[in-house]
């Protein structure tokens, strides 16, 4: 039988500790009162406990409260694990889930999206320049006295009302409207490319934060293992020192090395916390959220050569495509500057009404209150002292500058790809080398420990072996995750999306 200790109350008595034996009759304990579904085995008719001193005879209210509390306790016991598991799942991410979340909430990407929408609005705005413009005007004029028309002698009203409506269609503007429309389209394409560039930078940022967390988790585990190993060695050293088998300085060395290992563990813990906060910032989670991520156990080798990577980068990099658009836009700007070499032609149709009342329906002096006309206008600035020619030269220089910028961009991208490629190759080779060294370092530490226990090796030998093991394990995990980081940087340098593999 199981026993439970509660504080019970008897009538007229102070609370005392009561021992309850587990029984099927026990229902619940609430606010210092406990209730029995069947109190007969415990209380007599007067409410005196036959086995224990303190007991309440259940009333209908007590029964209701007990059953309600039991239902509530069952519900909470079921729901809290589910809620806790759901909250844990919300803080657990795979790499793809982290990327998808970052793309959804990132403010830079939202800003780029708004800029793309603004560029699309400019395209529609430029399109309206091809269409006719409709205008209207209503005018009222009051004079201080009546007057007569100086030609006809007709009396004129002191109140004059007029209404006009016009429609103006640009016929030819020296190709200015067409070039402005095409330049707006190029800006729209550039905005879409810029949005994709921001997305690629964000994906790289997520990958860097993700792999940095994984690396710091491994390094923290190495630091913990070092502390455990040195603590075990210190215990052996203390036993040896007590029986006089080792000198004091050997014991002090073990203590110092353990203190240093604990300090390394503290630093590893803080590096892990900082890296988790970095990913929280990217995902726009609370900075102190305890985020958990899935480890990446599959590491594929780099199976492409450098020339292939460079050729893909020259074809895929967003920056090169944007540079090409800037060259096209600069060319359109040169053509736009030539518009003043051509005349400007407009066609305008107008309708007019006048009168001495608000309805502009004729009156005093309004011989023809209702009229219309069509006007074709051609304007041309013949001489501007070379203004147009200088404007064309200015835009031509901008065009040459854009072409040079593209060439420089291609050279920088080639260098970026080569740097990322060589870094990835270096890390890949280090993985193979250090992986063999890890096996050797573990065996060396095991042998040193066994030899020390048999007093065939010194404490310094064990400490050196442990330091060598920790260093080797650190180098291994650094190489392992630096390879992933460098591959992510190489994929970004080649202009690949998040699913592109190298």
**Alpha plus pi helix count:** 9
CA-atom Rg in angstroms: 43 Å
Strand content range: 5-15%
Helix content: 55-70%
Main sheet, how many strands, which sense, barrel? 4 strands, antiparallel
Categorize the overall geometry.
elongated
Task: Show unreliable segments.
Answer: 1-58, 80-88
Mean pLDDT: 83
Q: Label the structural class.
A: alpha+beta
Distance between the termini: 66 Å
Sheet with the most strands: spatial strand order: 6-9-11-12
Count of extended strands: 12
Order of helices and strands: EEEEHEHHEEEEHHEHHEEHH
General description of the model:
Helix content is 60%, strand content 15%. It has a domain at 3-92. The protein has helices at 60-90, 95-105, 107-127, 176-242, 248-283, 306-316, 318-337, 387-453, 459-493, and strands spanning 3-8, 16-21, 26-30, 33-36, 92-93, 133-142, 147-148, 155-156, 159-172, 292-293, 344-355, 370-379. Mean pLDDT is 83; it is low at 1-58 and 80-88. The chain has a 4-stranded antiparallel sheet, with no helix packed on it. Strands 1-2 form a two-stranded antiparallel sheet. The chain is α+β, with helices and mostly antiparallel strands and 502 residues long. The chain is elongated, with a radius of gyration of 43 Å. It has 9 helices and 12 strands.
